[in-house]
Specification:
With 275 residues, the protein is of the alpha/beta class. The protein has one domain (5-274): P-loop containing nucleotide triphosphate hydrolases (Rossmann fold, 3-Layer(aba) Sandwich), CATH 3.40.50.300. The chain has eleven helices and eight strands. The protein has helices spanning 18-31, 46-50, 63-71, 97-105, 114-122, 139-147, 159-178, 198-208, 225-233, 237-240, 245-274, and strands at residues 5-9, 36-41, 83-84, 90-92, 128-133, 150-155, 184-193, 216-222. It has an eight-stranded mixed beta sheet with strand order 3-4-2-5-1-6-7-8, with helices on both faces. Helix 1 (18-31) crosses helix 11 and helix 5 packs parallel to helix 6 (139-147). The two termini are 25 Å apart. The relative contact order is 0.18.
Length: 275
């Protein structure tokens, strides 16, 4: 591939639609003709389960094994541990073994860069790599941010989620300053939006007008039981409810993300030509 965009989908707060967004944005990008790798970087394995692998702890190879081989400098085939999914994406799955691996990382040299070093060997095969981060700022999330070009932040339009955004942005800024200078925030995506409530409307409007320098995506993902149903079936929203409002929203988000990434690439090329 000419270039690869590595996007970390993250929020330190759980239950904000992070995994659902990583899954449906990834498959949306694949439907648009891109080669996509989804990386499950959460030991809960929610992304893995959401793609139909109901018993991730029974997998013989997962992200923990791949990262351990990277630490040990062992050779791997390019597709080692990667599952080819029927909805045109590849998946690097996760399971509970990642928890033990994460603890061991604290005694590892260049511990923040293990995932980056692995992705450097395979990302040439993809247009997009999306990392579904765990809902905390542990060592695996730092690895994900160190490996990423950009960050997409799903958030519910409620007080607690909005309050946590400031802390998350500070954490991202710290990783940018100390580990990954190229890291930038693509934007905040509002999920599970119920525009019948004044509270949601107020929070969304205030963040759009805040002028914090962080983009808020024009697309909003509406609340719908269809998204939960798709997860239970191990399918994307496109396969479960193709003509529904959530599928339409994720299709719009896909286009918006591709436009954001294209503008970013153009900006970087312009900066390189000036140097």
């Amino acid at each position: 591939m000419d270039s690869t965009n590595v996007i970390a989908v993250t929020n330190q707060k759980g239950g904000v639609g992070k995994t659902t967004t990583a899954l449906n944005l990834g498959i949306g990008l694949a439907r648009a003709g891109n080669k996509v790798l989804l990386v499950d970087a959460d030991p809960q394995g929610s992304l893995t389960v959401s793609l139909g692998i109901k018993q991730p702890d029974e997998l013989t190879v997962s992200i923990a094994n791949v990262m351990q081989k990277t630490v040990d400098d062992e050779e791997m085939a390019a597709d080692f541990g990667i599952i080819h999914h029927e909805e045109w994406i590849d998946l690097l799955p996760s399971n509970i073994e990642l928890s033990a691996f994460e603890v061991g990382l604290f005694n590892t040299m260049s511990r923040e860069l293990v995932l980056r070093n692995y992705l450097e060997t395979i990302k040439k095969n993809y247009n997009y790599v999306l990392i579904d981060c765990m809902p905390s700022l542990g060592m695996m999330t730092i690895n994900s941010l160190a490996a990423a070009d950009s960050v997409l932040i799903p958030s519910q339009p409620n007080f607690l989620s909005a309050k946590g955004l400031g802390l998350l942005l500070k954490s991202i800024a710290k990783v940018k300053k100390q580990i990954n200078p190229k890291l930038h925030v693509d934007g905040i995506l509002f999920t599970m939006v119920d525009n019948r409530t004044n509270n949601a409307k107020t929070i969304i409007a205030s963040l759009r007008q805040a002028g914090s320098g962080v983009k808020v995506f024009a697309t909003e993902i509406p609340f719908s039981v269809k998204a939960a149903e798709a997860t239970l079936e191990g399918k994307s929203i496109f396969a479960h409810d193709k003509g529904g409002k959530v599928a339409e929203a994720y299709e719009a988000l896909t286009k918006e993300v591709m436009e954001v990434e294209q503008r970013q690439r153009s900006r970087l090329r312009a900066e390189d030509s000036v140097r």
